[in-house]
Input
Amino acid sequence: MTVFDLPGLERRARELTAQTLAEGFWENEGAHSVTREMSSLSSRIDKHNSMKGELDEVEALAEILSEADDAELKAEFYDRAGRLAQAMEAERIYVLLDDEYDISSAIVTIHAGAGGLDSQDWCEMLYRMYVRWAESRGFDVRTLDEFRDQEAGIRSVTFEVNGDFAYGYLKGEQGVHRLVRISPFDSAHRRHTSFSSVEALPILPDSVDVEIRPEDLKMDTFRSSGAGGQHVNMTDSAVRITHVPTGIIVSCQVERSQHMNRAIAMQVLRSKLFERTQRERMEQIESLQGEKRAIAWGSQIRSYTLQPFQLVKDHRSGLEVGNVQAVLDGRLDELMMAYLRFAGTGHTSASSGRDAGDVGIQGGQL
Output
């Protein structure tokens, strides 16, 4: 089933409706995910039908105008055709969001790299950037785990972004993000380079089977270090789970209940193990094909330069944006779209003339 497969969407909606009518459905833990998928499908089907109906009406207007020259009808035709073209252009991006889990919500983790306070501050700046982007799209954001430094910034943070296609957009943000600026922590006002890594995973539906053996898990509890009130800070409600065979560690301290924190941490672990399995499978295929691929931590995907000039450059799509502050305030759509088009076609993007031109830089290398 693809984004524009209307019969497939309608068939899936009927399947889910049948599930909700089954006895005991609302007592099932997966009821929420089913109703959420139904809501998403209903929205997409309604939008598709609305655009199809508008297209039929515009075509009818065009047929009338071919036989009669009516100024009022002509103005209506161009107005409606223009708005329809804009709506269709906005929907075209979903053709690129056709991987199996692109429609899913996402779990995002940001880690500060080497660089001390500057990298920790950069980690916090990235966190703020993604939260603002998500909120501008109407997505819900929930922080699951956060380790702040006593002096400044964040060492690492994990958060959920809940909304249709959140993972599809955010999957292109995976990799190392590089910041060049005059350090606010350097009394000599020297220029510093900081790095932080971003990891994005899909929140898997309950139907996806990920084998996790209880004997492979080590669970530790500790007191929450974040906000949450007196109860959270005075009880061992926070949970850390280690998957011994892989060494993957996940933790959650957002809920007051240890049970709830454990459930959320297990959800994150499922996604991490699934992603690891998929990555190993891809590496095996590429090894057989004799191809080389970059190590994730070393794959610098984007540079944000504040001094000596202002420029954001995506090293994959080639897109350059001069309005760095707007990007840091969450205006990421242009960069995300450019990456999705690059990933889908292999073609790089031109510089953003409006923004890059503001600082007189075209095609410069960082």
Observations:
- The domain at 214-288 is CATH 3.30.160.20 (Double Stranded RNA Binding Domain).
